[in-house]
What we know:
By secondary structure, the chain is mainly α. It is 73% helix and 0% strand. Helix 5 runs antiparallel to helix 6, helix 9 crosses helix 12 and helix 14 packs antiparallel against helix 15. The longest helix is centred in the middle third of the chain and has 38 residues, at 192-229. It is globular.
Amino acid sequence: MKSYLLRRFISTLIVLISVITITFFITRVVPGNPISLWIGDHPSAKQIEIAKRELGLDKPLANQFFSYIKSLSKGDLGLSIRTKQPVSFELKKRFTATLELVSLSILFSTIIGYPLGLFAGVYKGKKFDKIISFISYLGLSFPVFWSGMILQVIFFSYLDLLPLQGRLSLDLENYERITGLILLDSILHFNWELFIDAFRHLLLPCAALVFSIFGIIVRTSRTALINTMSEPYFETYTSYGFSKENIVFKTAYKNTLIPTVTIIGLSYGLLLGGTFLIESIFNWPGIGQFCVLSILTNDYPSIAGVTLLYAISYTFINFIIDILYVLIDKRIEL
Length: 334
């Protein structure tokens, strides 16, 4: 285990250094003028000179890079050119919003998709399997922004059951934050009004993400179970008179856990960096929206900060998946 952790730490360090280096130099060479964003349109030559000095752009590129690495080692991600706020502050404020939305979506997708995939595999080729397969393909086929807008039309415009946008109602936004995860904070404060309001705001964007994710979990678990049911040991059990359902839900399902956990982990990592459309539609103050706006305005400190955060999140998720492999199958060695 110690050697594995050491190897993992070294590989993670190499990945992060590579991400930092590539992101830094790409953001410096892409077209765009961050100086105009910093001081406004039609600046004088004196203002441009001052802005370059403030942003460190008057130094050679290599010096800028080493200065950035030095600041990064102290936990300083720089100042956002667009918002004039520390990048670390912006990321902390917005990442919890994305984390809460994505985590809940993954949880619901797993709870719904994994059992349905197993049942579809057990009843392969039958009516239930065809219905589940159709629904899962439908979810994979529809663009997530289209699903989100349809849900808004149905549950806000027609039925008026759920809020249209945002994380909270205006009168509840000034609650005392502990973690930044509103559902968790509301539980810690025993504030059930806040919990219900936050949950109602989460339902529509979460449902749109679940509809787009659960299909791949269904397909993965179904395929893994069908492959398992074709193995000799499964046929041996059936020859002794055990029903397929009994074999699957007592022992065979374990063989589907590793591929399913893999796809869930990958989906989790991808969603953390791919929620811009949902965040835009539902005006969700998350990291995806912040990232795209930073790219459009060439706010390179924010772009580098977001990229680094995504890289850390993804490597951490992969590390958790590796640990889960060992817990699921003791034959796997790290």
